Amino acid sequence: QVQLVESGGGLVQAGGSLRLSCAASGRTFSSYCMGWFRQAPGKEREFVAAISWRGGSTDYADSVKGRFIISRDNAKNTVYLQMNSLKPEDTALYYCAADLSIATLLKRGLYWGQGTQVTVSS
């Protein structure tokens, strides 16, 4: 069992930056691939970024490539999402998720956090 708690969301102006954190419980954090997803009002949840269990492989949605960076610190049981050059269309509830592979993470997500709100004003 893995519990995930997101933090770092808030209100920021367009062009600004935020760093989201996702703290995981359990001693097996380093065994899981981690990802970030987001859901805007009235829209379906969508993939944002993912990172392999060692951090050697990452994947990004086309809409955030070159602006967002996912990273992890297995010693701290934490995964991060550095968000730069934020746009109003990045406004959403951002969720952290974990699964045993990036492929299954994208399909289902075994564990999910409660989300942290990001609002980008124009």
Describe this structure as you would to a colleague.
The protein contains 1 helix and 11 strands. With about 120 residues, it is mostly beta strands. Strand 7 and strand 8 form a beta hairpin. The chain has one helix at about 100-105; strands at about 5, 10-15, 20-25, 35-40, 45-50, 60, 70-75, 80-85, 90-100, 110, 115-120. The N and C termini lie far apart (about 40 Å). The model has no long low-confidence stretch (mean pLDDT about 95).
Supply database-style keywords:
48% strand, four-stranded antiparallel β-sheet, 122 residues, 1 helix, mainly beta
Give the % helix: under 10%
What is the gyration radius calculated from CA atoms? 13 Å
- The averaged pLDDT comes out at 95
CA-based shape: globular
Low-confidence stretches: none
| SSE run | EEEEEEEEEHEE
What's the number of helices? 1
Strand element count: 11
Short description:
It contains one helix and eleven strands, in the order βββββββββαββ.
